[in-house]
Amino acid sequence: MDPNIIRELQEFLGKQSVLSAREDLMMYEYDGSIEVARPDVVVFPRTTQDVVRIVQLANRHQVPITGRGAGTGLSGGALARQGGILIVFSRMNKIIEIDLDNQGAVVQPGVVNLDITRAVEQAGYFFAPDPSSQKSCTIGGNVAENAGGPHTLLYGITTNHVTGLEVVLPSGEVLRVGGKTMDTPGYDLTGLLVGSEGTLAIVTEVTVKLTRLPEATKTLLAIYETVDDATETVAEITARAITPAACEFMDGWTLRVVEAWVHAGYPLDSAAVLLIEVDGLRESVEAQAAEIIDVCKLNHAREVRVAKDAKERDLLWKGRKNAFGAVGRVSPSYYVQDGVIPRTKLPATLRKIDAIGKKYGFEIGNIFHAGDGNLHPIILFDPRDHGQYERAVAAAGEIMAHCIVVGGSITGEHGVGFEKSELMPLMFTEADLEAMLRVRHAMNPAGLLNPGKIFPFGKGCGEVRVKPFPVTSSTPL
Amino acid sequence: MTETRTQKQVKGFVGDDKPSWDDYARCVHCGLCLNHCPTYRLWGMEADSPRGRIRQMLLVDRGELELGDGFVTHIDRCLDCRACETACPSGVEYGKLVEFTRAQIEQQHPRGLFSRLARDAFFRYLLPHPRSIDLAARLTKIYQRSGLAAFARATGILKLLGLDERERLMPRIDDRFFFSELGKTFPAQGPRRARVAFFAGCIAQVTFTKLNEATIRVLTANGCEVVVPDGQLCCGALALHAGVRDVARELARNNLEAFLRESFDAVVTNAAGCGSTLKEYPQLFQEGDAEYPKAIAFQAKMRDVTEFLADLGLAAPLKELPLRVTYQDSCHLAHGQRIREAPRKLICAVPGVELVEMFRSDDCCGSAGIYNVTETAASMEILEEKMRYAMATKAPVIVTANPGCLLQLRAGAAMHGTKQEVLHVVELLDRTLAS
Ligand SMILES: Cc1cc2nc3c(=O)[nH]c(=O)nc-3n(C[C@H](O)[C@H](O)[C@H](O)COP(=O)(O)OP(=O)(O)OC[C@H]3O[C@@H](n4cnc5c(N)ncnc54)[C@H](O)[C@@H]3O)c2cc1C
Ligand code: SF4
Ligand code: SF4
Ligand 1 centroid to A217 CA: how many Å? Predict the structure, then answer.
């Protein structure tokens, strides 16, 4: 990288906020995914103005810019695939305003998801999008990935809870879109930007909607002897048009791993469990819970437990939310998938995943947001063993292809990023991709923002052409 | 950008005392620990986060990163508070990793002369030797009592030397030392419910004599016969955290002998930091070593005083004490030993006491062994946030479970004028003993 760029960055950000030594850059070549790519310089802005100056500088020198929140992403989104400047938002982490009267808050992009809820829960509110990584991931990352979570089923995803954004365009122009209300006149640019994976603009401020804590909540754990019974239950809950707040599936293998850490009382000898939550007004919660218990029993649930207090409920959720991480206890590396399928196809798809695992010789754990058909098969592999990485990627490809065949999608909430960009043509026609590229071109004409993401390599018009960073198959992290 | 493998090869970790692949590869770089790490929250840098530190260990081990100044700085800045262990779903034993890493640094990284001399003096010649502690304490007492301290403060010499904050953190040397109690047995009051050995600490014997005495009073009042075995030495925690494993191992050998000579129902400590190391003595030895089975037997007996009392159940009658208190989880109790309920149970057992939870009560206060002396600026920033949350509880008393935390929080209360009193759980209990 041109030393002048680094010097200029240091001039207006201060030396403490610019990293360019090799050993420092190595700390930003990874995220929660299995990809690796190293930036050329890392900067820590504190204000929108800092971001503007960084972007202007990048524009002047035509170097790529990539944003990064907490780096918990599972699709390599926060990796500087073509080098350049990585903007880390960890120091832009102030809650600017909490406006309870209007059920909203204005926050900087580096604010941790759970910290929003923590700031308002005493007053009876919460921030509804609850990705399992919520104790670490940032709102900026949530906006970029349009993150979801277990409670997405009832409450919706990030886009349903973000009403306004302040963003910096690649030109350095600051744009404010949306506002404090759900609908603003004109194009819904907020909607366009949420989920754009940092390829259209850099987010510098987010206006979120706060949700009232429900009056009552009931958490059920339905325990099954077979995977099919559990998935049939999901299909039937859907068919009866019951919408629980959350409906999560964990197979027996995964819950044994999780139980070793959380000690929530997950049954070790079962084939699968469903963690179902209903919330709302007290009376309706009771009625819904009763009906769900009925459906579970009809589908041969061995037992349906009801969490007796908040503590038990928290423990059950703690197990679910930390499930990916807990896999590290038994395997040095894993590859999480994020496919979506119609819920009616759940039983057959799980059988297919099982078969793919057998074919490639991998253990594949299954844990997913069953309520919305968002699968997260976890392929366990050992990167020290030569060839396992490549085989894991191949197995993942087959699973994704299957999701598309049954009418689903290759990502539910983790984003396309760098990891799944090559799979996009499986889902979209040339015309579809062209349409998306035209949108990108309108906002990010030189392709400087987060290049190498979403679109298959070489597809981006005006993409800065640098050779892609080779994925090292030896990365054991 | 792809130079990783062709860079100059550095040798990586050597010998037995090193982080093993099995331990660091448990980290699946999910990042769920980040926001629980005080240093990450302070600086927002991956290199000062648990995930980043583990990544650096791996890179050093693979020879892709030099075991040089940068690496050492990031490892030095770690509080070893182990909050990341609590947060980590993958079961990464971070404390073990950082201790082994520091052992590597100690062996391989040349420190400046002054730093080396200071470290040697402290870890090798002071802590392991009660007589040296006694002498140093007497000298310090002269400094503190003779007006020299007041003089140094008044003239601004301390400020000039950049030592003023550190001086505030310095414990006041006791009038009487606890050394004279070694070898004694304190009979149980009423029927004997248990016979325990008391671990008295090293510096605590010249700075926390009153806390040690209170601990013995509370234990005996609750039907415990308390023996203070002679021949016990420093637990080795500070040396271990600094990577001086040979000294820690020698101290462990000594303590295993001192405490396993007789049979006790439990060995009890009032210092969470010591307790955590004492419970982990097996990690200092290899499975084949003669000490290993002893360390396992000792581990089975080792209890934090709050853990022990909560299990035993309080038998002594307690006076009513109408008081609002908040509890600061000591890291090596909450994260190191996974004990959160016991101290709270004891606090709530005091009639009239109302426990108000503090926001982020299980975040480190910045004391972290001698961190407040070695990394003073960071420690003070961490403390500042802690005092803000402590003040927000409006509790006039902060209760905690470790001498180091007591010192730090007392300094914090003074510096930030919160007017809060800081007590150990057993000091609170001692105050309410009816007799
Ligand atoms: C254990 C685990 C569980 C997870 N569970 C879920 C889940 O349940 N649901 C879910 O949806 N996801 C989940 N994820 C994925 C991940 O946590 C989410 O994608 C999250 O939104 C990423 O946030 P982050 O702050 O870590 O962003 P990063 O990983 O740092 O970045 C993600 C993307 O956001 C962009 N970005 C970040 N900040 C900005 C900004 N200010 N402006 C523009 N672009 C920006 C980056 O360029 C990148 O493309 C999980 C991850 C892990 C490790
Ligand atoms: S939570 Fe555990 S596995 Fe995840 S990054 Fe931190 S140390 Fe690694
Ligand atoms: S021990 Fe504490 S300071 Fe060190 S990495 Fe873990 S959480 Fe951070």
Answer: 28
